[in-house]
Amino acid sequence: QVQLVESGGGLVQAGGSLRLSCAASGIDSSIRTMRWFRQAPGKQREFLAGITGGGDTNYVDSVKGRFTISRDNAKNTVYLQMNSLKPEDTAVYYCNTLPNYWGKGTLVTVSS
């Protein structure tokens, strides 16, 4: 059974940092493209960042230079380091891999 479990969310002031984790089980995340998405209240879920099995990364423009996706293959875990957080980053953050595996999300709240 495939499971993705996000953690690391919380309340942070604007300008602060958080590191989110996505622990995978039932799959080998090291060979998969893993992605982070977020969904703010009243908005559609949006793609943020992805990392391929080969380690190539890509980001949506709004987080480039502030967020970094990485992985620890030994822990079967993918991370999202978020720096210079803004109130508009407030959302539930989700981990995803194909074909359609999603975690339950972790809430990030950025106060102004």
Helix content percent band: under 10%
Structure summary, number of beta strands: 11
* Structure class: mainly beta
Q: Major sheet, described briefly?
A: 7 strands, mixed
**Annotation field: number of helices:** 0
Shape from CA axes? globular
What share of the residues does DSSP label as strand, in percent? Answer: over 45%
Describe the structure.
- It is a single chain.
- With 112 residues, this protein is mostly beta strands.
- It is built from no helices and eleven strands.
- The chain has strands spanning 3-7, 10-13, 18-25, 34-39, 46-51, 57-59, 67-72, 77-82, 91-97, 101-102, 106-111.
- Strands 2, 4, 5, 6, 9, 10 and 11 form a seven-stranded mixed sheet that branches.
- Strand 9 (91-97) and strand 10 (101-102) form a beta hairpin.
- The chain is globular.
- The model has no long low-confidence stretch (mean pLDDT 96).
Quick description:
Helix content is 0%, strand content 53%. The chain has strands at 3-7, 10-13, 18-25, 34-39, 46-51, 57-59, 67-72, 77-82, 91-97, 101-102, 106-111. The termini are far apart.
Topology:
Layout: E1 3-7, E2 10-13, E3 18-25, E4 34-39, E5 46-51, E6 57-59, E7 67-72, E8 77-82, E9 91-97, E10 101-102, E11 106-111
Parallel strand pairs: 2-11
Antiparallel strand pairs: 1-3, 3-8, 4-5, 4-9, 5-6, 7-8, 9-10, 9-11
